[in-house]
User: What shape does this take?
Amino acid sequence: MAELNMPSNGGKPSRIQRRNRGLILEAALDVFSRYGYRGATLDQIAEQAGLSKPNILYYFDGKEAIHVTLLNQLMDNWLAPMHEIDPQGEPLEELLRYLHRKLEMSREFPRESRLFANEIIQGAPRIAGHLDEVLKPLVDDTAALIEGWVRAGRLAPVDPRHLIFSIWATTQHYADFEVQVDVLMPEKAAQNGATEFLDRMYRRLLTPEPG
Assistant: This one.
């Protein structure tokens, strides 16, 4: 993948180079999240960024290079909340904190969520290795942690992987189906009730029965 062109003296990228690269990635995120990888074009990205197509190609080899850069950045940020689950913490509160952060991210980064969803729907051709080498070990470790909490009676019996999938589905829905949510629940104040609703639902699901 092409990286930012470096100055001939081997120094750091200039302020303008960093600015232009940021403009390209921001524009590409918007274009890819709306049209998907197949529907997006370099011309659309260039127009959105306010740069010429040759200028885009100065910084990146092509559309795929931009897309992979965005996905790599996304995966690092997207997985951070799962890394932050504390094995020494209170199990229910740790999982609810994870739920809350995923819901916050769906509100803060809807384009990133749709970018990832589009990549998965297409068969993950550009991040299959990342899913296998990074995501799977992390989910395996988290599932093992949840299983341990269940065995210790600190959580109600639950399949850990289905629990993780469910949290992803219920939180990222608000980003991936944002247009539908806005039609069915146009009042933003009403949408804010998602946190309370999901907290109550998962708290009931995961709280062990007395005794």
Remarks:
- Residues 69-206 form a domain with the Tetracycline Repressor; domain 2 fold (CATH 1.10.357.10).
- The chain is about 75% helix and 0% strand.
- The radius of gyration is 20 Å.
- The chain has two domains: 15-61, 69-206.
